[in-house]
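Quarterly update from the structural biology core.
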Amino acid sequence: MNLVELKSVGSILDLSKGIVYPQLNDSDSIYEYDMGSPISLVEDEISAEWYKELSQEDYNLVKPFL
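Predicted structure, tokenized:
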């Protein structure tokens, strides 16, 4: 896994698969996330609100999967 934190939306992105996981309880560690709730940026529907909350930096990380 190639993990990066999307701070603006409280999520962790696996850059190798385009999978987003919710970060647990405002954790300071990118390794504390909910593995049981994966969301694919390619195959799943993501709310427009989530995309609106992305910072420009985080959007640039997500963009290749859109």
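Helices lie at 48-53, 56-62.
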